[in-house]
Amino acid sequence: MELLDRMLSLIPVAGRLDVRCHFGSPWRIDRPEANEWEVPYHVLLRGEAVVESRTGGKSEPALRMKAGDILLIPSGSAHWLHDGSGNPPRAAREQHKDGLTIATNGGASQIADVLCGRFVLPVVPQQLMRDHLPSRLLVSSVKENDGQLRDAAFAATRLARVIQLMRDEAFEQRPGSATVVNHLSAALFALTLRCACHADDAPRGLLALAQRRRLQPALAAMFDEPEKPWTVPKLAELCHMSRATFVRHFDRAIGQSASVVLTQIRMALAGRKLAQTGMSVAEIGEAVGYQSEAAFQRTFKRQVGMTPAKWRSRSRNADSET
Predict the structure, then answer these.
(1) pLDDT recorded at residue 141
(2) 170 CB contacts (<8 Å, ≥6 apart)?
(3) Cα separation of 2 and 148, whole Å?
(4) Which of 9, 153, 165, 166 has the most CB atoms less than 10 A away?
(5) Based on the domain organization, do 33 and 167 belong to the same domain?
(6) Does one domain contain both 179 and 223?
(7) What global pTM score does this model have?
């Protein structure tokens, strides 16, 4: 399996479509900060949109979306989409049918159709996902075959098919459409990340690391056998590199050391076991590479911000509320 396969196997993502917005100018969509287990998304089916957001209390540069674009907000930060006119938005009305919500504002000019939803992450520590994706990720499903890599063009085409299916189901509102769209939303997440990985300007982090074929043996080892006592020299040897070369390539792609990524993988796996199994803390620590329960407890609390026991209680409460 490739890097994305391994990551999504460890942190499987579900999808939810919240609302389809059919707006005429002027319009605006406001989204508050998401909870830690959600990644908001927007698919622009028709028209254009301006995206603004604030991360860490600071405004980020505005983004412009065109039809066929997908926007992910991995940071979960508050954000808003609008038509860019600067005029006060028209009042919107909502209708609910067969589990889908349709919002309209009665406008007839410069129509925009937007699918707004969220990707729901499992209850695991989110450093592996949050730390290695940009605060905002904008991907286009429409690409011209202008000499780009065939893989990128093919990924974009497949992405466009999923969006078209989501559009058809959201527009036609047949029985079961809400369930179909939610399943397609989960596929949309994987295909969007794949498309971003193939892009020439893939951001730093896991998306850029996916392009580094020479580093894949080390990543495979960390995901597949996290319980082993991996060291940087051993990981470098798997990649047929010197220690210095391995460290340089890894840092250039991801901005963090291999040992940090290994710890994040271990904590994600441990968090999942704490939430979903009755294994003892000591057994889970050993399963993810810690021979000492005390060492596992210290690392987990440092990385996650709470003890394994508190995480287990909190995650089970969160599961019961969803």
Answers:
(1) 78
(2) 17, 20, 100, 115, 177, 181
(3) 21
(4) 166
(5) yes
(6) no
(7) 0.82
82 and 197 in a single domain? The answer is yes
Both structure tokens of 197: 């990985």
pLDDT at 322: 52
C-alpha 115: how far from chain center = 17
Q: What residues in the chain have per-residue pLDDT under 70?
A: 1, 143-156, 198-205, 318-322
- Out of 202, 225, 247, pick the residue that ends a domain: 202
Show which of 202, 233, 268 is a domain's final residue.
202
Q: Note whether residue 207 is domain-resident.
A: no
Residues with Cβ within 8 Å of 34's Cβ and at least 6 positions away in sequence, in order, are 40, 73, 76, 77, 118
- So what's the pLDDT on residue 99? 72
The closest alpha carbon to 11, from 268, 254, 204, 273, belongs to: 268
Domain of 233, CATH number, reads: 1.10.10.60
The predicted structure's pLDDT at residue 200: 61
Please enumerate, as own/partner, the contacts of 147-154 that have beta carbons within 8 Å and a separation of 24 or more: 148/200, 149/198, 151/198, 152/195, 152/198, 152/199
Residue 168 confidence (pLDDT) = 86
Distance, in Å, from the CA atom of 186 to the CA atom of 121, rounded to the nearest integer, reads 10
Q: Is residue 243 assigned to a domain? A: yes
Q: Is 72 inside a domain boundary? A: yes
Domain residues for the domain of 154 are: 3-202
Same domain, 249 and 125: no
The total of structural domains in the chain comes to 2
**DSSP per-residue letters across 185-201:** HHHHHHHHHHHHHHSTT
Secondary structure letter of residue 214 according to DSSP: G
163 and 225 assigned to the same domain = no
pLDDT computed for residue 1 by the predictor: 46
**In this predicted structure, what is the pLDDT of residue 321?**
57
DSSP code of residue 24: -
How many Å is the maximal CA-CA distance in the chain? 66
For 154, counting Cβ atoms within 10 Å of its Cβ (0-12 exposed, 13-18 middle, 19+ buried), the class is middle
